[in-house]
Sequence to fold (620 residues):
Amino acid sequence: MTARNPFQPSMLAGLLLACSLSAATAVAASKPDPAKLPSSAEVLAATQAADWRDVNPEDAVLMELPGGPVVIELARAFAPVHAANIVRLAQAGYFDGLAIIRVQDNYVTQWGDAEEDEAKAKAKPKDLAKTPVEFDRPLKGLDFRPLPERDAWAPQVGFVAGWPVGVDPKKGRAWLSHCNSMVGAARGNEPDSSDGSGLYTVIGHAPRALDLNITSVGRVLQGLERLSALPRGSGNLGFYEKAEQRTPISRVRVLADLPEAERLRLQVLRTDTTSWKKWLDSRRYRGGWFVRSPDRVELCSALPPVRTAP
Amino acid sequence: MTARNPFQPSMLAGLLLACSLSAATAVAASKPDPAKLPSSAEVLAATQAADWRDVNPEDAVLMELPGGPVVIELARAFAPVHAANIVRLAQAGYFDGLAIIRVQDNYVTQWGDAEEDEAKAKAKPKDLAKTPVEFDRPLKGLDFRPLPERDAWAPQVGFVAGWPVGVDPKKGRAWLSHCNSMVGAARGNEPDSSDGSGLYTVIGHAPRALDLNITSVGRVLQGLERLSALPRGSGNLGFYEKAEQRTPISRVRVLADLPEAERLRLQVLRTDTTSWKKWLDSRRYRGGWFVRSPDRVELCSALPPVRTAP
Fold:
């Protein structure tokens, strides 16, 4: 590992291997010495089964693309009607044969029915709910774990069961934040015009000006690179101009509806545990490769790790 | 343009076409009515030649990839020795035949000599300068234009001639921020181990924990999608595991060294003008598609527009 091999060993050392193995329990209230803290990898290696939340297979869908699967967890606590609609659409096979229709660099990848305004648009199930605006919800009833750090966008930010959340304490409202990998329901000019049949995910810097303006419905937990590494569209806003440029969706299924062997059993690190606090500290206080510890985390730079259930 | 065509017309309306054409000069000190402000597109359409800064062809390199050109402007004011080295390396043909060696999703794309630690590494010009750490510099001497908004990472942020900058007013220091599209010089564990021969650009959410820890040297002004849409590497940290997965770099040239006809004449919106203030306001105060104006901008969500010189 020499200086002549730029960035590779450095990042490996700085992000994965830098810190001492001996200080796994020392998390100080004041600014700790990064060299005495466990690294992120060490925190994760020391987690117990109870530190992880199982993704409920009834709350997640698997989207099959030519490159492989994409798994999206639905945020029932924040967008219950949209989530139910997406489940209903998947169960009806609505997404099967549709496509990725838009990839705008440093912004979003979007999928759905390219012919939605046309006569040949795909029929939706007749029992789909009329979808209300689900831009935010009451803070009350949520196990909100605030970050102490200030945020550029929201009065307060933190996590609810692993979801990145903005909060207005005065108004008692909470909403999902548009971090990279979050999924939203495309809408037209009418605020309540989304129904879950057109979806997008963030593939660049978090466009948090969208927060509170469109309904976030979930997060890509696996396979995000199958959406973020697609060719950018050359049309307005990154829409593909030719049908053959679109990536086809072979099918979307609710995980619970798949044979047991085909379900991808994913887990998200819980954000109400001591392990979570240690993991955040491992991201705040950096030693090794780092010359200057940032001494802070930022909401969208600290999304909880995801793993396949052991 | 109906609600049944999700997101497309909406974004078009909200981001490009929404606001009145009649209020182009009204920029209020207090919170203005978004409907009375010009849109971003309208602000840009109304700019004069003096609102744009020509990219100096001696301060920019063109990297040719199979997909087309990538243009990187070098930040001489922040990393003069690295910038001079990159120019020297380009003039010596050092990058020609090297490759994109790493693409890590939501993080960075990196290029250089994959064999740097090996005997077959490419020779560098003998007159390359020994490169110091250029993580930050004195604020004094810079035409810093602060944003009034708070930032999650730096005591103060703003722009210097179009560059996104963090500032510590107490220490009188300024540094480039790791926004999407910014370019840095890969280094090993020693802080001064970068020399400009290995470079990376940010392709995801701004990893600003890297600020003040590695030398930023420039920004991709054109062709970023040729770096951000590449297949992600399956090795540690997104390094490609097989040589054939790498994207070859046919050549890197200083724009000034190219025949006049081959130079791409780019311009960056100046950040010391009234047009810039109007453009920021068009991003802060959103009407049309937006239900709730964000009433703020964030450093890495407000990088100055780039255009080809008319």
In short: The helical segments of chain A are 8-17, 40-45, 80-91, 225-228, 274-284. The two ends of chain A are 32 Å apart (CA to CA). Confidence is low (pLDDT under 50) at residues 1-28 of chain A. The longest strand of chain A covers residues 68-74.
